Every structure is written in structure tokens, then in C-alpha cells.
Amino acid sequence: xxxxxxxxxxxxxxxxxxxxxxxxxxxxxxxxxxxxxxxxxxxxxxxxxxxxxxxxxxxxxxxxxxxxxxxxxxxxxxxxxxxxxxxxxxxxxxxxxxxxxxxxxxxxxxxxxxxxxxxxxxxxxxxxxxxxxxxxxxxxxxxxxxxxxxxxxxxxxxxxxxxxxxxxxxxxxxxxxxxxxxxxxxxxxxxxxxxxxxxxxxxxxxxxxxxxxxxxxxxxxxxxxxxxxxxxxxxxxxxxxxxxxxxxxxxxxxxxxxxxxxxxxxxxxxxxxxxxxxxxxxxxxxxxxxxxxxxxxxxxxxxxxxxxxxxxxxxxxxxxxxxxxxxxxxxxxxxxxxxxxxxxxxxxxxxxxxxxxxxxxxxxxxxxxxxxxxxxxxx
Length: 379
Prior knowledge:
Elements: E1 5-12, E2 15-24, E3 45-49, H1 55-61, E4 67-68, E5 88-92, E6 96-100, E7 105-109, E8 115-119, E9 138-145, E10 149-154, H2 161-168, E11 186-191, E12 197-202, H3 217-224, E13 227-235, H4 250-264, E14 273-278, H5 285-297, E15 321-323, H6 332-365
Parallel strand pairs: 2-4, 3-5, 10-12, 10-13, 13-14, 14-15
Antiparallel strand pairs: 1-2, 2-9, 3-8, 6-7, 6-9, 11-12
């Protein structure tokens, strides 16, 4: 009875990031008229977050079927209250957002074991209260995967994001000398000597116009939303997608990346961010890096080199700017240390913020304006 009906899916490469399925709760059981029995409740359909599961697995395992909770049992002479129908648990990836077919948000599953009821089972019938059993809730829902990682790599194609991920982690991303190497998100973990682990997501490269869904557009940007921090990766020598597109210097590349995030969702610019300037092993890289640092210190003095429509309204204050070379290993250890330090600082700020919020709440509760003063009657 535990089935899934696949209706629509979207994917890039072999990676499915969105799945549309039918869910239906079980019907309630019948009450026994002669003895005033009560039927059992129908089973719910539950989405359960589990590591190691991908939407591809869900699609393949339950193709052309549907998720249905079992019906509640009818009451009987032996059991005046019928038993409830078993729930229908469905394992889905951690980091799933679940919405109705018309876009209403049902909820999110952010960590292992999180579960969400997506279809409610019907109530059992009761002859005593003249209540007829109800059918289970039936609807179409969308499972939308937004990666959860500590750090998301942000950059134009061929900036060296995949190579960097492979250098700092045990991930084995596809690497080649052509722009769109990363066709699907890749996850890796930075392992530290004290056994601390930091997850890093290499995301498909942006192109200009990603905010209006050009290239992999929204498929990339929605994953950025679910990372704690951003690590911009920029080629010190600049970037050109093809001979038909303009060449962009490293400074222009940084500005265009900021612009794409800003136009998609401005709140993304509030995330803590680091900047890795890659390919420092190439000839002339040091001079280009020094020029870039001068430009980033006073960006307003250099924004005129970009067309007005390509200038972001806001700038990002990068926590660390590091010259690196994946080829030679230059700056890689320092980069991993800075990533750790930045995340530790963010965690500390979050703890302090939570403590301050708790104090504010307690202050409101104990405020003189809230507490009614008790006056002792004069004798």
C-alpha cells in the first residue's frame, strides 16, 4: 500500500532537484452501529529526512505509483474501537522544502530524523455520535531540494571551484578544461586534525543573467540560500565564457557575482563571505592580485568601468581575501583555517545573539510596566 505516483520532475545532468508526487491519507474506519463502536483513524503520509537518500532514489523506487496511508480498521464485537491505519513514512533527502502544488509552503526537513505530515488520515466513524468516517486528505505536493552545507562555492565557470573542492576535501568532482564541468552540486567535507568537519558545496557555475534563470540560474541560486557562508572563487586572470561574451577582469567578475546574488535575493549578501583568488601560479598573477586588492579596498573608484546596469547596489565586506593556487597548493592551508575561523566566529555570534534575545525576553516579562505593583493599605 506504500506507493508513489511520479507526475513531474526537473533535473540537470542525472541530478533531480524537484519532484512532484501524489499523497493520500488513509480513510477512517466504520463504527459498529449495533454497539456504538468507533472506527480507527486512517494513516498519515509522512516525509522523513534521511541521510544517503536522493530524490533520484525516490523517483526510481516508486515510479508510476503513489504514497497512500492505510485505512483505519472498522470497529467489531471484539474491539469496539477500531485500530488506526499504519502511517506511510517516506524517506527523502535532508534539506528538502515541501510545498503544495500551488506553491504554499508546508515545511522543511533540515536534519536527519525530521519528519513532516503531508497528508492527514481520515477520522473514524462513530455510530454513537452519528459521525460518518471521513476520507483521507489527498493532494499533490512538490519536493524541492535545497542543499544544506556550511560553505557554498560561488563563481563563474572555470574559476577552479571543482578543483578547489577536490583539494580541500575527499570529494571527487568532475574536472575538465571547459566551462560547465559542474552540472550538478557536489558535496565534500574539510577534515581537521581535531576531527571537526565542515561541509562544502561546489555548485554549478553562474553566468551573467542567472538571476533571470539564464544558464542554470535558479537551480544554482536556490542552493546558495541554504548554506551558512559563501566562498567566492575568482580567477585572478579574469573570465570570458565564450568568444561571443565580453572579457571580465577579476574585479569585474567579483562585482558581477555580487550583482547576480543581489538581483535574485538581496538577503544573500548578508551571508558571511570569503574570497579566494585562484590560479596564483600563472605568470603575472601577483601583479594582478595586488591590483585587485587596491580595487576592492575602494570599489567605488573603479565601478565606472562596468556598464551602469551591471553595477551592484551593495558591496560585500569579505571576511578574508586569500590568494590561492590549487595547482601548487599555495594558500590552501590558510584558506581552510580561515573557513574554520569564520564559521566559529559566526557560531559564537549566534550564541551571543540567542543569549541577548533571551535576556530581552526576560526583561520584558519582569518590566515594571508589566508587573502590577501591590500597594500595602495604610493603617
